[in-house]
Amino acid sequence: MARRLNVAVCQTGPIARAESRADVVARLIALLETAAAGGAELAVFPEMALTTFFPRWDLTDPDEIRAFYEREMPGPDTAPLFAAARRLKVGFALGYCESVVEDGRERRFNTMVLAGRDGAVIGRYRKMHVPGSEAPEEGVTVHLERRYFEPGNLGFPVFSFEGVRIGMAICNDRRWPETYRMLCLNGAEMVLIGYNTPLLLTETPRLAHLRMFHNHLPMQAGAYQNTVWIAAAAKAGVEEGQALIGGSCIIAPSGEIVALANSLGDEVIVHRADLAMNEDCAKAGFDFARYRRPDEYALIAQAAGPRRPATAG
Ligand code: CDT
């Protein structure tokens, strides 16, 4: 029998700092209802979908910072979203700020949780490639994710969702080929991605016209080179004075964008993903067992390889 998964991307418009969790969750439930009406079985929401993208601010008040994190998932504020998943029979992946006690101390991660069609948690992923800095730098767009989050410590896990192998990635992760290759080697058939990407970066004005190209390029390449489906949800629009790109999309294992958002607001796109395409595309050149040369790739595994190693000759 043909294996297919109806997947929805639930893009959100901006989320204001003053917006309550209850209001945001109500917005997400409305999106999930639209996804369900479109026949979706699984939906993906953006990175940090419950709050504004606060790493754009140089915050120092611990209470102010603490307010952006969830200590439970589901917790009292987010339980209605899990209940909606159960009612609608639509699973989801949701990006949020996670605070957890591990190794006897509080740890903070930029996380995405995967819930099943019964509203139960299946698993979670913690962002590996945490961009930005710990303190503002002269002439550089303020992006302090490295102050507010540790790099993920769960690897690149793959979970079974209704028999489909699902991986997750968060924003900057999507720019790195290692993300897709690790997920693919772990067996992913579909990768769910959430992002918050500034439209403009002060430090690279000559690349400003390429922001959307550089959004789609690595995801299309990641899908193609690893023969996986990708469903990617932006938080878009002008959020607290900062413009975030949209461009939420669903990408086939051929690298083609098969569905694309056409707004910077709350919007749902749905596609019926044919999981036989993964194999068909793999046959067209990416037969890993036959052609890959892992024995020749040792440099990739080094903890911190040089960017441009000197080559002999
Ligand atoms: N949220 C996130 O990871 N955003 C990054 C921009 C970093 S700018 C220092 C991205 O890759 O879109």
Class from helix and strand fractions: alpha/beta
Number of domains: 1
Major β-sheet annotation: 6 strands, mixed
Order of H and E elements:
EHEHHEEEHEEHEHEEEEEEHH
Description:
With 313 residues, the chain is of the alpha/beta class. Helix content is 23%, strand content 27%. The chain has one domain (4-284): Nitrilase/N-carbamoyl-D-aminoacid amidohydrolase (4-Layer Sandwich). The chain has helices spanning 21-37, 62-66, 79-88, 145-148, 177-185, 211-226, 276-283, 288-291; strands at residues 4-11, 42-44, 91-102, 105-115, 121-126, 158-161, 164-170, 190-195, 229-234, 237-239, 242-244, 249-251, 257-260, 267-274. The strands form three sheets. It has a six-stranded mixed beta sheet. A six-stranded mixed beta sheet has the order 6-7-8-9-12-13, covered by helices on one side. Strands 10-11 form a two-stranded antiparallel ribbon. α1 (21-37) packs parallel to α3 and α5 packs parallel to α6. It is globular, with a radius of gyration of 19 Å.
